[in-house]
Each structure stands twice: as C-alpha cells, then as structure tokens.
Design goal:
The chain is of the alpha+beta class. The chain has four domains: 110 residues, RRM (RNA recognition motif) domain (Alpha-Beta Plaits); 170 residues, RRM (RNA recognition motif) domain (Alpha-Beta Plaits), CATH 3.30.70; 92 residues, Alpha-Beta Plaits (2-Layer Sandwich); 74 residues, 2-Layer Sandwich (Alpha-Beta Plaits). The protein is built from eleven helices and 28 strands. Strands 10-11-7-9-8-12 form a six-stranded antiparallel β-sheet. The protein has a five-stranded antiparallel β-sheet with strand order 21-16-18-17-22, covered by helices on one side. A four-stranded antiparallel β-sheet has the order 2-3-1-6.
Length: 521
C-alpha cells in the first residue's frame, strides 16, 4: 500500500456515506470521518479501545479524517456493528465509521506520526500494565496531563437516582476503580472516585465529561481532584473501598460484595454491557413504571432502553442483539475438586434460568454457562463475578461462544456437560413470579421457603450444620411459618449451603427453596 493512499478516500461525499456505511468488505483498518479539528490522537484511539487492541493510527487533520487499525478483523467488525446503529461522538460531534479499502496501515515513513505512535504506546502500556513506559511518555511528550488518579464528579439535572454502583459500573470500564465516596454538597450530588492509575482517570475524564448517564439528564461534570488518595471508613451505599471487603458498614447495612449490586433494589434495573468509548456509551434510559419509556436522544450515553414489563417486573433489553455480549458466560478460576455442573446450575440459577452447563474437559477450572437470555447473563455477571466459591475467587464474563454445544453421541465427556433447559427448578419461567423482585447479591443471610409444618428450628439448624455451615442466627417469619431467615458464618458459607440445600427434600412432598436475602437477623 502506498504511504499516501489512505488520504485518498474522499471525505466530502457524506450523502453517499450515510446511505451505505460499509461499502467495503470487512477490514481491520477503519476509516473515520468528520473528526473534529481539535480532537487528539488519544481520543480517536479510545473509540477503538473497548473492542480490542488498536495497532496503528493515521490522522488526516486537514480532511477531518482518520484511519484506525485494529489488531484483528473480528475486533473491527464488532466495532462497526456496535457504532452503526449508535453513532459515536467526539467533542459533541458525530463521527462516522466504515471499513477501509486498505487491509493494513503502513505509516513508517510518514511525517507527523510521532504523536500517534506515542499515543499508541501509552495506551498499550496502560493495557499491559507497563506503567514505567507510560510515565516516561507522559513526562517526555506531555501526552497526558500530570494529574492524579482521583476524579471529582458532579452530577447535574439529577432526574433519576444515581447510585454508587451505577458509577462503579460506568467508570470501571476505563480501569480498576479502587474507591468511591458519594455526598451532597451545595444541593448537588457529587462523588470522588479513585483509580489504580492516573492514566485510567485521564481516559475516563476525556470520554465521560459532559456525557449524560440517562437520556437528557444526570449529566457528568468531571475534574481532577486535588486529593491524591481517598480514605474510606465504611463500605455501604455512600462509600466503598473495593480493596477492603473487611470494612464495617457503619449504618447497619451489610457491606456489598465488589460485584455490582442491582442499581435500584427491587426494580432489578439491569444495565447493558458498557463499552465506554470516548464521547459515547450505550444508553441507560429506563422505565419509571410499566410502559413509560424514556425516548433516546443523541448525546446521551447511547440509545438502549431498559424497560420493566407489566405485570411481571421482568427486565427486557430491546434490540439486545446489538450489545457486545450474549447469553453464554465464561466462568473461570473454579475449584475443580469441588465444582459440579449441578452446583453451577443452582448458583447461577439464582439470577436467571440456566439452560446448559459445560465444565471444560481438559481445563476443569473453566466452564461455559448458557442462560435463557443476555439480560440474565449480564445480571449473573454483575452479582457473581468476584464471589468466593470453594476457596477461590470466581471470574465471570461473556463468552465468545453463542451456544453451549452438547457432546456428540459416544464422545467422552465424564458427565461434565448437562442440559437443564427443561428443568423444573427454573426460578423465572412463570410470568409475574415474585422471584423477579427478590434478586439480591450473595449474602450471609439466606431466605428459606416451602418449609412443612412438622419441621422445627433445630431440624433446619442441624441440616445447615451438616453441610459445614456455622449457624449464627435463625428465625421463622411471624406471619408465615413456611418461611424463615438463617444467618451463616460468611457469604461463602451461604453460597455453598445454597448450592447444597436448594431443592432439598424435607418430606411431606416439600422441597426447600433457598435464596439470598437483603435482610439481616
């Protein structure tokens, strides 16, 4: 490819472009148009970051164009598919993306490439954790301002509540969030947020400053704080130190797990996966009651709407196919000595209907779990990623697979793949089920139901003790002796007990129902 040829794509024919955004066959080189004249190399690169590694960049500032080369064609396809229905913005200006005719970018001999290469090196250093290179680049080239890792966030036009967990979900897409403190000052809702690295803070500020969390409201104004580190005394809904799960809650509330708790309690509002590209992210409009959907406006964080369906309260994501995520989860760092397909079916079944489970034959620390839909898969990730299970910290993310294949007839499998699509134990198959309102993060207190009249307090305490649990407290519900709360020694104990005892036969045709509780005894 001729060094100057990328510049030959004609940027003036906008009508033709809008009508047919991808005239070429897929390529890992993408052609970006209408780049604002003051946009930086780092801003353009950050459009591609959520989808994979950016390997090269060519800025054509005189033509308001750029070429971005991704590490793989697959990453480029994901990026084009994502941005085609929802145009990204840089500095409040729409940017149009299509495949280039070029298969790769050769920019070795081009003048003015130093800044682009410095920006790429800095990004790659950030992604690989090589802070030394990043610091050197920042000092030498002044690419990144000498700011700290703490951001001050002011949220204006607070039409809907914004929780600490919502902020965590948005900002963690730009790097590891260590601490968050929220407060109200001068009648404004504000937050202080500390990243592990100043580079993460820089990218988050660049991408999110001026954006709205929900359509046309809850607008973020972000500055660097003068503080170099945050001191968090309590883990609760106002402040959180994600590096210290041992902190007290300070206000009687249980400290939440580092997994993202449901943002609005019993409404079970579920956010779509959040790529967090510069100047754009998918919308998080939601319904304030059945049937009321906030229309998506350009310039908000995108255009997906999460609505509650009457009467069940079940969450749906319209057009969820456009979300980079599916209904199959990759679960890793499992304890192969203890885990079984049934155990994963019961645990993930708290957050959705599990159709299939496959523990990898050659690497039993990994498993694939197929949920009923992408919404349930996202919910399971938000609650279970980071949860301790049989002595290990479980990791859950979206898989590249769209379906869990059953073994072929005669194929050796050792019973590691199971099909649960017709299981009677699915919690969410009935429309209007109360289970939709009772989805909570893993906690040391379990809610028990379907208890027959003949079963006593001691019977249930002994049952849980027999699984290795320490019973700290127990009480039957006053109005309904079919239900009870039991508090165990730790969250991990409760997770193990739920796996062991959900659907346990108590006699008299009663099978015990176990779920996590938001209450304490």
């Amino acid at each position: 490819m001729n060094n100057s040829t990328p510049g030959r794509d004609n940027g003036n024919d906008k009508k033709k472009f809008k009508g047919d955004r991808s005239p070429c066959s897929p390529s890992r080189v993408l052609h970006l148009r209408q780049i604002p004249s003051d946009a930086t190399e780092a801003e353009v690169i950050s459009l591609g970051l959520p989808f994979g590694k950016v390997t090269n960049l060519l800025m054509l500032k005189g033509k308001s164009q750029a070429f971005l080369e991704m590490a793989s064609e697959e990453d480029a396809v994901t990026m084009v598919n994502y941005y085609t229905p929802a145009t990204p913005h840089l500095r409040s200006q729409p940017v149009y993306i299509q495949y280039s005719n070029h298969r790769e970018l050769k920019t070795d001999n081009l003048p003015n490439q130093a800044r682009a290469q410095a920006a790429l090196q800095a990004v790659n250093a950030m992604q690989s954790g090589s802070l030394a290179i990043t610091s050197a680049l920042a000092a030498e080239g002044g690419l990144f301002p000498g700011q700290g890792s703490v951001l001050r966030i002011i949220i204006e036009n607070l039409f809907y509540p914004v929780t600490l967990d919502v902020l965590y979900q948005i900002f963690s897409k730009f790097g590891s969030v260590l601490k968050i403190i929220t407060f109200t000052k001068n009648n404004q809702f504000q937050a202080l947020l500390q990243y592990a690295d100043p580079i993460n803070a820089y990218y988050a500020k660049m991408a999110l400053d001026g954006q709205s969390i929900y359509t046309a409201c809850c607008t973020l104004h972000i500055d660097f704080s003068k503080l170099t580190s945050l001191k968090v005394k309590y883990n609760n809904d106002k402040s959180r130190d994600f590096t210290r799960l041992d902190l007290p809650s300070g206000d009687g509330q249980l400290p939440l797990e580092p997994s993202i708790a449901s943002a609005f309690g019993t409404q079970n509002i579920i956010f779509p996966p959040y790529p967090g590209a510069a100047g754009f992210a998918p919308a998080m409009g939601f319904a304030q009651g059945a049937g009321l959907s906030v229309p998506a406006l350009p310039g908000g964080l995108g255009s997906l709407t999460v609505t509650a369906c009457a009467p069940s309260g079940q969450m749906t994501l319209p057009g969820v196919t456009g979300v980079p995520g599916n209904s199959v989860l990759l679960v890793s760092n499992l304890n192969p000595e203890a885990i079984t397909p049934r155990g994963l079916f019961i645990l993930f079944g708290v957050y959705g209907d599990v159709h299939r489970v496959k523990i990898m034959f050659k690497k039993k620390e990994n498993a694939l779990i197929q949920m009923a839909d992408a919404t349930q898969a996202q919910l399971a990730i938000s609650y279970l990623n980071g949860q301790r299970l049989y002595g290990r910290v479980l990791r859950a993310t979206f898989s590249k697979h769209q379906i869990v294949q059953l073994p072929r007839e005669g194929q050796e499998d050792q019973g590691l793949t199971k099909d649960y699509s017709n299981s009677p134990l699915h919690r969410f198959k009935k429309p209007g089920s109360k289970n939709y309102q009772n989805i909570f993060p893993p906690s040391a207190t379990l809610h028990l139901s379907n208890i027959p009249p003949s079963v006593t307090v001691d019977d249930l305490k002994n049952l849980f003790t027999s699984t290795g649990s320490t019973v700290k407290a127990f009480r039957f519900f006053q109005k309904d002796c079919k239900m009870a709360l039991i508090q165990l020694g730790s969250v991990e104990e409760a997770v193990h007990a739920l796996i062991e005892l959900h659907n346990h036969d108590l006699g008299e045709n009663h099978h015990l129902r176990v779920s996590f509780s938001k209450s304490t005894i």
